Amino acid sequence: MIIDTKLPKVGTTIFTVMSQLAMEHKAVNLGQGFPDFEPPQPLRDSLNRAMNEGRNQYAPMHGIAPLREQIAAKTERLYGRKVNVDTDITVTSGATEALFSAIAAVVRAGDEVIMFDPAYDSYEPAIELQGARAVHIPLTVPAFSIDWQRVRDAITPKTRMILINSPHNPSGAVLSSADLEELASIVRDTDIVVLSDEVYEHIVYDGAQHESVLRHPELADRSFVISSFGKTYHCTGWKLGYAIAPAAFSAEFRKVHQYLTFCTFHPAQVAFAEFMANHPEHYMELPAFYQTKRDRFRDLLRPSRFKLLDVPGGYFQLVDYSAIRDEDDLAFSRWLLLQGGVAAIPLTPFYESAPGTRLLRLCFAKSDATMDAAAERLCQL
Fold it and tell me: Is residue 4 part of a domain?
């Protein structure tokens, strides 16, 4: 039987490809964005305790009450936004599920969704599966900022959603309060929904604060805001995230969520609720934790021939390799892995069309030993 694919442009993700090659060739893996160190011990202890105490069956569809209460308290503490514990918060099986559920909940066939390149690779397939069209607007290099006039020019009667991401993957760029004001002025008096991917919300550097959409009442009233426990607590494999949205939005979101995953890993929900209550300092200290890693990694790479772009947020370092080889990023990343012994991620897969830049993404959410080993090899090129 021949199957007519619904996603003709989708193959194996670049993250899977590079991680598999890294394993096969024993390369240092700075490609896929996961820490190679463990979550906090008290969090792991809470998980074990939850399993041993019998919290192993289905959780409530929208998440256990103690965890939603902790999320609400954190949201009000950090962003001044009071959200309803029962109607506005949904715990999901990772941020990717939350992003998909938000898009599926409100985007219909024939709609358009504005997104910004380079963009995380799950966005467009989720849009296309609804029969909608992704409208790509490139960010302005090297700052990876949004040209808001281009956004205004891209608005049509079919525009249903604008999808933003801050801190941005892969560049680490962050949106400012002025950016949020621009966005608000564009969507005001329209039915356009905002989807804000904020999974790196606690990883912002140099004393800056994360400008969450939740800080902006006008935008918060028309937005889905997506967050990730995995990114914040160094446990990406646990696959827990959540969505915050007004009650009417959340009701539609939950219609999708309940038939996509229904509920999320129960023991981990118990563990996060307990850890957030007992250790609120964890996410408050995260910027300093990762800034130390960022600065250390940048110092290690300074003797290399790579040009280092600024990193305002997130845990990725973009590097320009044009002084080393003159070839596209897909070819260079393969050469770097096979000949240099380091796995990185090229930027082309994050774009609708190849940007022609000579940039790679390196992950520094790694142990000192991993960073040292990678930097030694990169500085020899």
Answer: no
Question: What would the DSSP string read from start to end of 69-126?
Answer: HHHHHHHHHHH-----TTTSEEEESSHHHHHHHHHHHH--TT-EEEEEES--TTHHHH
Closest CA to 14 of 257, 342, 361, 301: 361
Q: Which residues neighbour 48 within 8 Å (Cβ) at sequence distance 6 or greater?
A: none
Parallel/antiparallel/unpaired status of strands 89-92 and 241-244: antiparallel
Spatial neighbors of 301 by CB under 8 A, at least 6 apart, are: 308, 317, 319, 375, 378, 379
Residue 368: what residue type? D
Residue 39 CA to residue 37 CA, distance in Å, equals 7
What CA–CA distance (Å, rounded) separates 198 from 228?
A: 8
**Residue 163 shares a structural domain with residue 75:** yes
pLDDT value at 9 more than 90: no
Are 91 and 192 in a shared domain?
A: yes
- Show the DSSP H helices in 210-246 as ranges: 217-220, 229-233
Say whether both 231 and 110 belong to one domain: yes
Which residue's structure tokens are 């256990």?
64
Residue 336 and residue 219 in one domain: no
Q: Do 89 and 232 belong together in one domain?
A: yes
Task: Categorize the per-residue pLDDT at 117 as very low, low, confident or very high, splitting at 50, 70 and 90.
Answer: very high
**Average pLDDT estimate for 154-164:** 98
Among residues 225, 257, 279, which one ends one of the domains?
279
Q: Look at residues 257, 271, 335 and name the one whose alpha carbon lies nearest to residue 101.
A: 257
- Domain extent, residue 361, equals 14-39+282-378
**What's the rounded Cα separation, in Å, for the pair 59 and 63?**
6
Beta bridge mates, 138? 117
- Residue-wise pLDDT for 127-139, tens only, equals 999 999 999 999 9
Q: Is 3 part of a structural domain of the chain?
A: no
Q: How many residues does the chain have?
A: 381
| Separation CA 297–CA 294 (nearest Å) | 5
DSSP 40: P
Number of domains in the chain: 2
pLDDT tens figures, 89-108: 999 999 999 999 999 999 99
The rounded distance, in Å, linking the Cα atoms of 251 and 234 is 30
Which of 164, 179, 183, 174 lies closest to 119, judged by CA?
164
| Structure token pair of residue 313 | 């947020």
Same domain, 273 and 314: no
